[in-house]
Each structure stands twice: as structure tokens, then as C-alpha cells.
């Protein structure tokens, strides 16, 4: 039986820490300017050649390669200026307890430099990387700097959350559930009355489970990602696991996109390796859909064909086939259970959706499929 | 000043009505079979040649063209069978008080007909149109048949909703707000303590307004659509306007996509003309963004160029330009205020985003832009 474990992290949001780091950065620059030196930032290098898979902690981590950005360097000066502008903006946001979207941060800092025709930023594609640079330099999440990502996803189950002055139970909001905000740094968990969290890819499936009263019967918290999990949802999952000891079980479609959603929740994305320790949940497990489910539950009639060209055909692999082969090479899928599923998908050339379980009956997923698999711990690592 | 008006509709969801209509349909077919006749359905024709704009009610409506679908006709038999299958499925759903997604409805009804190799449905693209046929035939919403659409969007403000046994105030859910379910037929409004509803295109802007305490200060309900408004959100807006007398004000980006979002909320879409009377809210008004805002608020520096080729250039109009010209021909945009804005967009070749207002200050939209425009009723029809 799945049970809540002992917490491994404590509620740790501290705006003062972020402010201190920013002030330190500013003072350092100021000191160099006063000393007549050429001020610079050291920024951990982005990209694949500066990430590795930490086998012990089982997360993608950033290496220690740095690149130095000088003020007095024609190739660096623009980015140097942009970095200071965004750092100052973040300081203002955090001091005032305000949040801004990435887009707002871009617009707020875009202006023409007096006496020139030069704009500080021409496009959001200039400000976003600067924000990522700051995350890497300071070792804080964008959300801790009060810059919010796009929000998506909702939560339903017997937990009580405090957000500012409000306190509410997410199982008492009708069929709607609680919409997960872009930033969950500031929320507190007042009461957790569930045994585990079930992370569900599609809203339709989450709503099915809510309608079948699965959260109550199985003492589960439902977290609907509505596609790829937003950063807010990933951070919420991380916090529920590490601060509250909730086992995390992921339930997606049985296709390369669904498995990628699982992969991102579990390990983080390679582009954002520096966030893994705060956003990823390597202990997450996977309940389905798997290729074995197709045979076990007689779903052959409701599979769909994989898209693209198989590896053994001319021009292949492309599409779904190519993505599956990529996934076979992820370090966290290098185990016999996952290799088996991914190989079967390639062999059979099919995918299977969560909602295909409705072919049995609407109740099937809530009354048989999930309770059985979870009770028997038929879960992939 | 905007104030709540007198309600024009009453809470009207009645599952028995849907069941009666389905039973009537079934009895009619059965009677014809028993009499040795060739049973048929009369289905209002889909497509542009069977819709018109009702100038009085100011909604798109379905015409009275019918097409007849016979059982004993090789070209009709498959669809006849599919229509009966789905009708029977809907009867079961509504009787049992269960809901299914369109995808579940497809999977649930897909099977191989015994003794043949024929599947009842090969693809969801076969079942969706059958569901639309039933909506048109019976004059009920898909949601009233317990078939739910994709859900998206959330709500924040001082209203109290009852959904089953739960009763909650959507301003007491922290920064998250209430996630709008796929179906809002069954919810009831217990208490409405706002003067109007502000429908907002982007989550980032809705969250800005929530952070600035706009809903409380301005006695407004915020409805975030997160892009194109889902059917659940459109139905919610309709019900808040007609059952609760709330004025509806829409706030989108100043670009063809944002104006289309407004258009869909206001008038419904041409494809789904038969739903207009239950999903559309023709009395909705538009606060921004407009082309005039660019000059009035000095936002020239934060506009973006329209995409595509202008009408006066070779190969044009394409992209944004083409969509704007299409929108100029919508009957509900055939008024001087909208023609002016759309013409200005074509002339200047620019678009303006909601979040560009952050260039003034984060508070600007909540403290100046919206309160001023709404108080002065600077709204487009």
C-alpha cells in the first residue's frame, strides 16, 4: 500500500535570500567600477556540454563550466547592460512583493536609451535568456525572483492549502478544482489527508476520476497537467513529495509525448538542467499507459498507429519512432522495465490513450485499472 | 457606472427534458420499424448555406434546411447506425448522471459488429459530427447530453457557487482561482457580489489583476479564458449575463486573434451556429486593446508588426491582414467603431498586446487603464 513518507525538505521560500544575492551581485559590480576595473559576471554555461546525469541523486545537473561577461567588451556590453536591468527589476519585484510574467518583464524593461536610437531589448527572445542566466548565476528559481511562467493545470483532493489569507480544501470546489497558479512558492500545506498524488495528463481523464469519486475512495490527490506539466505544477509536485512525503504516481497516454511528460516531471528537461533540484521529482513512478496494458486489458481494438517512419524502413526513423528511440537513450529510462515498453511500442507500431480505457466502461479506469495496478505496485520506475 | 441588470433567463437545466426528447426519437424510429417503413432522421443541414445573422436577437442562427438520413439507404445506413448508437449512449449517460468526454464517447462506442469485420466507428472524426447532428436535431447542447468539451480557464472574484454539495467563494482560493469545469450546466450561483465580469484573454493579465486586487477594488469578477474561450467558459459567461444580469466586458490583445476571441464570446462561431442562443452573449462589450489605445497611452514603442502581406502588396492579403479583412465583414463588426479600429490596424500594420501596458508600470492596467475606460464607458460594441 502506498503511504505518505517522512518529509525530506522543509518549506523554504525566503525572499530575503534572493534580495541578499542580488545586492551582493550589485555591490561587487559597483566595487569594480569604483576601482576602475572592468566589471564582469560569471555565468554557468548553457547547453548540452555543461550538463550531466547525477547517478546518485538521479537528476540532470549543471556542470561547472563558466562563461565570463564583461562590461568593457563590445561583444558583451549589450548583454551586460540587459543583465543589470533585469537584476534591478527583479530586486524591485521581490522587495515590493509583486510578480510579473516573462512578457511583462520584457515590456517593462524595453525602452530607448536616451540620446541614442538603441533599444534596451528588441524582443522577448532577448530578455528570456537573461532571466535564465540570472537563475543559473544566483541558483534561484525564476519563481523565487517573482517571475511567473505560464499557468496551466488544476488540483482536486482532500488537502487544505493556505495562500495568503485564504485557506481552502481542494476537494470542496465542486467538479472544478483549484487552478494552479504560475507560482506556488508562497503556498503552504495546512492539512494533507491523502496517501499519494496521481498526476494525470488529460483533463478529461482527471474529470473522469473526479466524477467516479476516485480521490475520496482511494485517498488520492488528482493533479491534472493538461498536457506538458507547467513549471507551477512541477514545483507543486516536487513540494508535495519532498515537503509532505507524498508518493507521486504519473498517469499519461501510452505514447512518446505521454512518456516525455513523465520524464519531465521525474527528471526535468535538459535545457533547464539547473532547475532539476527544485523542479524534478526523481522518485516519481509511472502507472500507465504501457504497452503491456494493451494485452492485459484487451485493448488491441482501440490502439492507434504510431506516426512517422519506423527505423527499419527507408527514410526512418521519423516522428513517433524517432522520439521513442531518443527516449530509450535517456539515462532514467535505461532499465529493463522501460526498455521493454519502448521496444514493444517500436515493434507493434502502436500507441494507446488513457481514454481508450472507456472502451471497457466509463468506471473501468477508476474501479479496476488504477486501484489494481497501484495496489499491486505494478509501476514503472 | 456598470451595474448588475435584471436577469433575463432562469436556471434551466433539466435532464428530464433531454431524456424525453431522446425517448421520443427512439419511439418514432421503433414505430416505423414495426410498421415496416424505412425509418429516418431529419437533421438540420450544417454549413454556411444554412446559417444567417438574426439582426433582432443579434446572434448567428441556424436556418431551416433539413437533410433526411434513411436506414435503408446504402449511403446513409452507417451514419444512421452511428446516430442511434450515440443517442443510446447519451440516454445512458444522462440517466446515470454521468459525463463523458468526446474522446471517451468515441472509444466507448467503438466495437466490431459481430459476424463482420466492420467497426462501428473508425475514428473520432466519425463520432464528433454525429454528436453535432444530435445537438442540432434535439436542440440541446452537447453539455446537456453530458458530453463534455475540453476544459480551460479559471475564475476569480466575489461570487459564491454551488456545485453538488460544495459551496465556495471564488475570491477565497488564493491566487489560484476556481478552475472552470467542462460542463457548467449543473452549477448554481448562490451569491453574486460583483458589478460586472471582466473576461481576460491571457492568464498573465488575469493574474496581474488578481495581484493588484482589481476584483475587490472594482467589484469585478475575473474570467481568464487562457486563449480562445472554451465552451464551458462561454456557457458560464452566458449564464452570468442572462441569469444573473452581469454586464460582460472583454479584454484581449489588440490583434486579429484577440478580436476573434471577443467575436466568439459575443456571437458564437459560424460552425456551431445552432448553439448561439445558449453559448453566445451578444450584449458583451469590448474594452481593449484597441488601436486608439496605442496613441492615447503612448505605446508606439511596444507594438509589434502584423504578420503576413498587406492587401496592397503583391501576394497579399495574407496572415494577420487577411484575418482582419475577414473580421471587417462580420455583421457584428459592421459598425463605425469597429471598422475604425480594424482599418487603423491595416493602415499602421501593427498589433498591441495586453501585457504591453506593463511598459507604463505593472499597476497601470489595474489602476488607470481599465478603471478609466470602464468608468467612462469607452467600450466598443
Automatic annotation (TrEMBL), chains A, B:
Cofactor: Mg(2+)
Pfam families: TOP6A-Spo11_Toprim, Topo_VI_alpha, TP6A_N
Enzyme Commission number(s) from the entry: 5.6.2.2
Active site: 107 (o-(5'-phospho-dna)-tyrosine intermediate)
Domain spans labelled Type II DNA topoisomerase VI subunit A all-beta: 154-191
Binding site for Mg(2+): 201, 253
Keywords, ordered alphabetically: ATP-binding, DNA-binding, Isomerase, Magnesium, Metal-binding, Nucleotide-binding, Topoisomerase
Enzyme class: isomerase
Annotated InterPro entries: Spo11/TopoVI_A (IPR002815), Spo11/TopoVI_A_N (IPR013049), Spo11/TopoVI_A_sf (IPR036078), Topo_VI_alpha (IPR049333), TopoVI_A (IPR004085), TOPRIM_Topo6A/Spo11 (IPR034136), WH-like_DNA-bd_sf (IPR036388)
Domain Spo11/DNA topoisomerase VI subunit A N-terminal per the UniProt entry, residue ranges: 78-146
Biological process according to GO: DNA replication; DNA topological change
PROSITE patterns registered for this protein in UniProt: TOPO_IIB (PS52041)
MF (Gene Ontology): ATP binding; DNA binding; DNA topoisomerase type II (double strand cut, ATP-hydrolyzing) activity; magnesium ion binding
The reaction(s) this protein catalyses: ATP-dependent breakage, passage and rejoining of double-stranded DNA
One GO term describing the cellular component: chromosome
Ranges for domain Topoisomerase 6 subunit A/Spo11 TOPRIM: 196-374
Subunit structure: Homodimer. Heterotetramer of two Top6A and two Top6B chains.
Task of the protein: Relaxes both positive and negative superturns and exhibits a strong decatenase activity.
Similarity section: Belongs to the TOP6A family.
Protein name (database record): Type 2 DNA topoisomerase 6 subunit A
Organism: Thermococcus paralvinellae
Gene responsible for this protein: top6A
Amino acid at each position: 500500500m502506498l503511504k505518505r513518507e517522512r518529509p525530506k525538505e522543509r518549506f523554504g521560500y525566503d525572499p530575503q535570500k534572493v534580495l541578499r544575492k542580488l545586492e551582493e551581485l550589485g555591490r561587487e559590480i559597483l566595487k569594480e567600477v569604483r576601482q576602475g576595473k572592468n566589471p564582469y559576471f560569471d555565468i554557468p554555461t548553457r547547453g548540452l556540454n555543461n550538463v550531466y546525469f547525477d547517478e546518485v541523486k538521479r537528476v540532470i545537473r549543471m556542470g561547472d563550466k563558466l562563461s565570463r561577461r564583461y562590461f568593457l567588451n563590445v561583444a558583451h556590453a549589450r548583454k551586460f547592460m540587459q543583465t543589470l536591468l533585469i537584476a534591478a527589476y527583479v530586486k524591485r519585484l521581490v522587495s515590493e512583493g509583486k510578480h510579473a510574467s516573462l512578457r511583462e518583464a520584457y515590456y517593462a524593461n524595453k525602452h530607448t536609451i536616451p540620446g541614442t536610437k538603441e533599444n534596451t531589448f528588441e524582443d522577448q527572445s532577448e530578455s528570456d535568456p537573461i532571466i535564465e542566466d540570472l537563475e543559473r548565476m544566483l541558483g534561484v528559481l525564476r519563481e523565487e525572483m517573482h517571475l511567473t511562467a505560464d499557468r496551466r493545470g488544476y488540483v482536486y483532493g482532500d488537502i487544505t492549502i493556505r495562500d495568503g489569507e485564504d485557506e481552502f480544501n481542494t476537494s470542496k470546489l465542486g467538479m472544478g478544482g483549484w487552478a494552479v497558479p504560475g507560482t506556488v512558492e508562497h503556498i503552504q500545506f495546512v492539512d494533507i489527508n491523502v496517501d499519494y498524488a496521481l498526476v494525470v495528463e488529460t483533463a478529461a481523464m482527471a474529470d473522469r476520476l473526479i466524477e467516479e469519486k476516485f480521490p475520496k475512495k482511494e485517498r488520492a490527490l488528482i493533479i491534472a497537467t493538461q498536457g506538458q506539466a507547467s513549471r507551477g505544477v512541477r514545483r507543486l509536485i516536487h513540494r508535495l513529495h519532498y515537503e509532505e512525503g507524498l508518493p507521486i504516481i504519473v498517469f499519461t497516454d501510452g505514447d512518446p509525448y505521454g512518456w516525455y511528460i513523465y520524464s519531465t516531471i521525474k527528471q526535468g528537461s535538459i535545457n533547464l538542467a539547473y532547475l532539476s533540484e527544485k523542479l524534478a521529482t526523481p522518485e516519481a513512478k509511472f502507472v500507465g499507459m504501457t504497452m503491456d496494458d494493451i494485452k492485459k486489458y484487451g485493448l488491441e481494438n482501440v490502439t492507434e498507429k504510431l506516426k512517422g517512419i519506423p527505423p527499419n524502413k527507408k527514410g526512418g526513423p521519423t516522428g513517433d519512432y524517432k522520439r521513442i528511440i531518443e527516449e530509450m537513450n535517456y539515462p532514467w529510462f535505461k532499465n529493463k522495465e522501460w526498455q521493454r515498453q519502448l521496444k514493444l511500442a517500436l515493434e507493434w507500431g502502436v500507441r494507446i490513450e488513457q481514454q481508450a480505457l472507456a472502451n471497457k466502461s466509463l468506471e473501468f479506469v477508476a474501479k479496476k485499472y488504477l486501484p489494481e495496478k497501484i495496489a499491486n505496485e505494478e509501476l514503472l520506475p
